Amino acid sequence: MSRLAINGGEQAVPEGLIKPWPPVDETDERLVMDALHAEQQARGKHNLAFEKEFAEWNGSRHAIFTNSGTAALHMGLAGCGIGAGDHVLAPAYTWSSSATCILHHNAIPIFVDIDFDTINIDTRKIEAAITPRTKAIVVVHLHGLAVNMAEIMRIADKHGLKVIEDACQAHGATFNGTKVGNFGHAAAFSLNQNKCLCSGEGGVFVSNDDEVAARAKQLWSFGETRAPEESRDYHAYALGWMYRNNELTAAFARAQLSRYPDYFKTLRDNGNLLHEKLEGTDNLIRPTEPEGHVHNWYNYNLRLDTEQIGRHGPPRAMRDAAVEALQAEGVPVSVWQKFLLPEMTVFQAKNAYGGGFPWSIPGADEGVEYNPEDFPVARRHCDTYIAMVQALRAPNGPEVVERIAEGVIKVFEGIGELDPAESQAVT
Question: What's the N-to-C CA distance of the chain in angstroms?
Answer without folding.
Answer: 27
